[in-house]
## 1
Amino acid sequence: MKITSIEAFQVQWTPNDKPSQRSAFVRVHTDDGVSGLGEASPMQGGLASLSMIKHNLAPRLIGADPLDHAVLLDTLLHDFVKLGPEGALTGALAALDIALWDIKGKALGQPIYKLLGGAWRTAIPFYASIGGNGDRTLDEVLRVVETRLKDAPSAIKIRFDNNRTRLDSDIPGDIAKARAVRKLVGDAFPLAFDANNGFTTGGAIRVGRALEDLGYWWFEEPVQHYHVKQMGEVASALEITVSAGEQTYTLAALADLIEAGVPMIQPDIVKMGGITGLQRCAALAHAHGVELVPHQTQPTIGHTANLHMVACQLHATKPAEWNDPSTRTHAVFENPPKPVGGMFHLPDGVGLGLVVNEAELAKRRVEI
Ligand code: CA
């Protein structure tokens, strides 16, 4: 089997959107007639990753055997590392890796989770990931949490998404929101607090102590992601589980985070490594006895790839992230992932198991 062509394109979900609001998809075709789908990190519409795929990576993959995906993509990572291993290049390679796994599954007639060694679970609990709470009033935060409780999540994470150039901007307000959400959901409901890198080390420890009193489950990215040592300092000072890693793009950088003392790592399948990369992250986490709880906010391909991954994870200690409950992004698939009874169920089909609605995809596709 040989790769014959690779398409890299954006998908538009609403008319008159901005390019930065679109998804970044890749489709790899083979001479067997099998094709696979992948998705890159959607930062700025994934345009940087899609451009690298189109101009740098795709020309090198034409004629190659898609089953050689790990060799091919590790070669490209090292050949193009000076394009910047963090972000755009790793997102591009992640998209290609997912597409090549989709092809491998289809070619071998198996779902990806079987090729990964089998699933520990095919029904996967999720947590509702709720962004934008820094700018909301306390009452608005409560209203949006109430809405998301209707999906029957196993946990809720409130994200603050504050401006990262202004640290510790409203610690009393942030704690008040965390306290109000705890009161709303009751003492037993699992909650997480995502600081989105908004605090100084001292500010983070102060907030973390309040979260401990409120019985929060984990405290995500308390300080700037590039302050690895300080992330570890915050983790060491607190009893609450501190997590980080969604902005970590190499296995070596994840090892640095673990070494600094962070007990829960959150690499993202569309940002680094794809399925092959996340499997390596799982091995690293297991070897060091830290939790692996992948970050993942893309509702179709990214989410499905992540479900295959976490289904096969030995110690899946937290629910899978689910960011976007809207169905607007579901249009291009016949069977988009939707939770049933508070669980996502792995699709039955081969490869990723997603069935494309070709007419809708053609209509929404935007060339780069
Ligand atoms: Ca986060």
## 2
Amino acid sequence: MKAYAPGRVNLIGEHTDYTGGLVLPMAIDLGTTVEGTAVDGSAAAGGDVRLSSDAEPDDAVVPLDVTDPSAVEPPWARYVAGVVSVLRPATGFAGSVRTTLPIGSGLSSSAALEVALALALGFDGPPQDLARACQEAEQVASGVPCGVMDQLAAAAGVAGHALLIDCSTLTVDPVPLPAGVEVVVVDSGVRRALAASAYAQRRTECEAAEHALGVPLREATPADVARLHDVVLRRRARHVVSENERVRAIVGAFAAADHTMIGVVMNESHASLRDDFDVSTPELDALVTRLMRTPGVIGARLTGAGFGGSAVALVHTGSDVEGRRVRAAGGAHVER
Ligand code: GLA
């Protein structure tokens, strides 16, 4: 069996997925292929999933009855173990991983691996179920209580389109990218420090804000947010509520090819992530400022969880902007 899954870049809608909000990622034209064959051996008979990788020196060898994926070595094998622990394949599997994705620079290489592996192991079902299974795999592998965006973008990508995902229903609406616009990703060079604990803390803060408000953040209004007494919770909630609005606004701006509005909304998103959600870094702020001043750039913002990682910019086609150009690509599939 051979299966492929793309990485993703999120255009806007950051730290909204785990409160059932709106996100606008796109699957990209870089991704991961898992190829291999089923081998004899049940869990009781000591069967395992064995993979080599062109991006890693050491193989992943994961027993079918693995119990703690987060403790598996080498570290990349934790994602393999996460998928094994969620899917519990009946027999072993031996094969290889090839990837064109840079590892650890914010393009969801781990989600691509999980989704490609799940398909190679025979997962069969709608993209939403595939994404949910792989989200759980990511959580048990990394200890980060991530949302579903990365895995669903990898599972449901559509060439030439971003994906408007409603994370409360997991409906996916493909949104065409405006003509004359390209997507550029620039790595800040800062690896994510403390990302796991800080991410979990943001999630807890959002839950606390919802508890204090008595309504899900997805349904909260700016007036609701203003009623929160706790300053930190108010800022966190303000980010989420305004970010959901920005996703709607940019979808409208895409349809109208309103480049000015696209730029304004992206830059507001970055400011909100920096000032209210506290997930930017000085390097990301400097990078986004530099990008915004570069001729040809329509808008720029940090992308993904933050705390390091990459910025995304929308630029005029053909403009001379530093960084990696990515195209909106199709989603994960089995290759025969
Ligand atoms: C990471 C998580 C996603 C999402 C983003 C922030 O990429 O895996 O679920 O929460 O951060 O938008």
